[in-house]
User: Fold this.
Amino acid sequence: MKRRRLLTASALTLAAGAATLSGCASAPTPADYAAEKPVLDLKSYFNGELVAHGIFTDRAGKVARRFTVAMTGTWQGNEGTLDERFTYSDGKTERRVWRLTDLGGGRWRGRADDVVGEATGVAAGNALHWTYTLRLTVDGSTWDVQFDDWMFLIDERVMLNRAVMSKFGIRLGEVTLAFEKR
Assistant:
């Protein structure tokens, strides 16, 4: 009986340890993409005219909204502006103006009127990882929603973006975008 409890305790400890390790191993970091090419240079990519096509999928994976974004990026030194103009499939429009700052060493800061505080990001290789809180109006209520946002440069013209939205740690859905540099 004692040996059986010892084996059971050992198995549980091993399983808990494996779950912890697999949980840690599953979260990517920008450093995981440091060797990937082409290298994402935000100042170069987000300079000039771009267009993006995107969808918002709810927690069940159903496409809840489609949209297009026309963007214009401009830079002066390490400070940039990305003017985004959204057009949704239902005809509604929105505008967000990002003010971006290159902090050096692959680190970035972003601000916009509907961003609570500031976005922080790290770029390495072909990837950029942003985290921020966006203030959204949903059915007449205001929600502060967290974004875990990844961008991956595919080639000199195309970048893919996947952002997971959550509130109180509960996943609300995802935004998927395909950017094209003009």
Observations:
- Confidence is low (pLDDT under 50) at residues 4-23.
- The helical segments are 2-25, 42-45.
